[in-house]
Recover the amino acids of this structure.
């Protein structure tokens, strides 16, 4: 990244962090410790109450970014350190992760940066879930330690600093881009079970983005509604219940339009994979227990229609 292109994302970062509330972690155990040499000679030991911290995925999705702002002086000056940790993913631990570092001296218009994403390293990274479970927004306590083996140079001038070691406990937040279900296509689906016919108003999850979201974050599902995950060609499918608040019945439908498997009352928030056990053309999700209540069983025939066209699976 050139100097010219560096300015805009940093301004956005400063603005977002300035809006954060004072104090780092709600448990009171946030901190940043670092040894800085060169143009600055500092032993940093910032504690939770005097520290602001914030974090998010990096803009290009290649890792996470964690920001720490130290005590605010009476003259409006303070230091901010921003770590860009490459290859870090949500909720997972890591070792030997390439890292870049930006140091801002707010109120002095001085900025130092390691020019490149591999001038520092995080030896060890851990993440612990904090705050409410579920929902499109998830926060983690991020614990890391590492060092820089190349200096951070001033954006203006020739000054250099070296951060020979650092360790911290801060936070990072991930937020899903959740589409409104009203944007999903709608259809009518019928299941023929013996002499009975059961009709449902369903959403169609057709695109990869729609299928990734599914019925996440839905707090209630009427008994006559559901969602159909349609495949362009039969394949083995695996489903899970991440960020799903209610129990669901999953009906796996084969290429001939027959129910080949029913996974009843799948557990909310479970990350266990529920496999189709063979190639299927679609998966239908209904309110938990609805298949048993209606007497729907393996072998029943499924069809659905949308915009006056009828397709039999």
């Amino acid at each position: 990244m050139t100097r010219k292109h560096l300015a805009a994302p940093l301004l956005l970062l400063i603005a977002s962090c300035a809006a954060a509330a004072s104090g780092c972690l709600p448990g009171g155990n946030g901190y940043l410790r670092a040894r800085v040499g060169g143009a600055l000679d500092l032993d940093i030991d910032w504690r939770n109450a005097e520290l602001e911290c914030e974090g998010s995925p990096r803009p290009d999705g290649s890792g996470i970014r964690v920001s720490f702002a130290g005590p605010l002086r009476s003259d409006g000056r303070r230091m901010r350190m921003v770590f860009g940790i490459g290859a870090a993913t949500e909720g997972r631990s890591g070792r030997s992760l390439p890292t870049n570092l930006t140091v801002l001296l707010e109120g002095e218009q001085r900025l130092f940066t390691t020019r490149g994403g591999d001038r520092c390293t995080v030896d060890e990274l851990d993440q612990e879930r904090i705050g409410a479970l579920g929902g499109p927004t998830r926060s983690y306590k991020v614990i890391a330690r590492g060092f820089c083996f190349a200096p951070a140079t001033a954006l203006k001038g020739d000054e250099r600093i070296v951060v020979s070691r650092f360790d911290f406990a801060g936070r990072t937040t991930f937020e899903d881009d959740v589409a409104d279900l009203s944007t999903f296509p709608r259809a009518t689906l019928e299941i023929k079970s013996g002499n009975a016919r059961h009709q449902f108003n369903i959403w169609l999850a057709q695109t990869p983005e729609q299928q990734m979201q599914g019925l996440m974050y839905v707090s209630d599902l009427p008994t006559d509604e559901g969602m159909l995950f349609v495949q362009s060609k039969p394949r083995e499918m695996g489903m899970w219940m991440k960020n799903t608040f209610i129990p669901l019945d999953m009906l796996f439908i084969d290429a001939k339009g027959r129910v080949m498997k029913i996974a009843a009352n799948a557990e909310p928030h479970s990350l266990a994979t529920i496999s189709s056990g063979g190639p299927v053309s679609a998966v239908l999700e209904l309110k938990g227990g609805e298949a048993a209540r209606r007497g729907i069983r393996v072998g029943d025939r499924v069809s659905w229609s949308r915009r006056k066209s009828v397709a039999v699976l």
Remarks:
- The CA atoms of residues 101 and 292 lie 57 Å apart.
